[in-house]
Amino acid sequence: MNRQSEHSADRLNCILDIDRELDRIKDLDLLLERLLLLARREANADAGTVYIRTDDNQLAFTHTQNDTAQAKLKPDEKLIYSFFSIPISDKSISGFVANHETFLNIPDMYNISSDAPYSFNPSFDKKTGYKTVSSLTFPLVSSDGDLLGIMQLLNARGRKKDFIPFKPEDEPFFEIFARFGSKAIQRAQMTRNLLITITRFAGLRDPKETDAHVNRVGSFSMEIYEAWAKRRKIDSEEREKNKDILRMAAMLHDVGKVGISDMILKKPGKFDDDEYRIMQSHTWLGARQFLGKSELDVIAQEVALYHHENWDGSGYPGKIGDLFEADKYIRDVEKRPAGYKKEEIPLFARIVAIADVYDALCSKRVYKEAWDEVDVLKVMREDSGKKFDPELIKAFFSVLPTLRNIRERYMDLPEDSPEK
Asked: Does pTM top 0.90 for this prediction?
């Protein structure tokens, strides 16, 4: 076999390995992060960005990676970036690629021909001191021919780590890569949409169960777990698998609220004792929905049932026994089941408890305004060792800048929004 044939065989095996790896990832955000990382690895690119097409035909900036910028941060600290959308038009490089669903390989971003309809915006370079030299931008198109988004790789690295143009001969590989990646994105989007649809049923009853809320709780939980797992030296493969499952399970934590009366869920004032006991039943009503044997079913059931248990044992619903006989707990006013405490509470439920309370305190509700973050963090600290696992609270504070960034990404819609 000659060298060219060996190279082609290696590339074929590589794309098959990538396809298998992507197939294991179910969550959309994790998939996009991984897809960008794999593309950068194959192109030896210093940086890259993913844009996803929105319902109103814009390109939403969703994920970015930059090795040069990352190297300036503390270990395990993540890049903080703003979220924005750009129109699909020929004026920008990404917009042009989206508009024409074509590849664009630019060797020198500061020397684009004046005849080109698109141009490079150097404002990021000026702001950060980062020099963008080259780019390879390509569309992500579904099997049905629908544009899903755009991937842009920046600054191919040479042997001396200098920035060089991307190789034109690599473009056929990335055409195949884009097809496999688009298939994975389409599958992950279907999974995300299904989860959102399920949680919207609860949202019909409880106005706080918005798409933004469940996405924030899912993302917060994943970040807290990752920080905890790294401190515990959990290997990367197990971390990634658990992050994938946890994010989805966390989104479903309050699905049991679909079984609670509107008079209780939408009550603006404080619950009386009877109403509070009924409200507590959303934990086991939710847990009853996950009776399968898959890892997601098992974790989703644990999270739904235990995310209101407290570290000191004062939470609910406590040791209620059989899920399908738990309703007697509501009727038996004299007996409150003993609560689970400390490590009796499953890890992922302890994590979601932190994520859910943090988001609830930071957000406006029917019965309250959003709290100032200083007050929120004071409560989180004070409840360490009482309501929350102290070790997980340390992990929570270690990723606080990332959690703030997530809040910016998944913002609640204005009250008068037609989508609300």
From this structure: yes
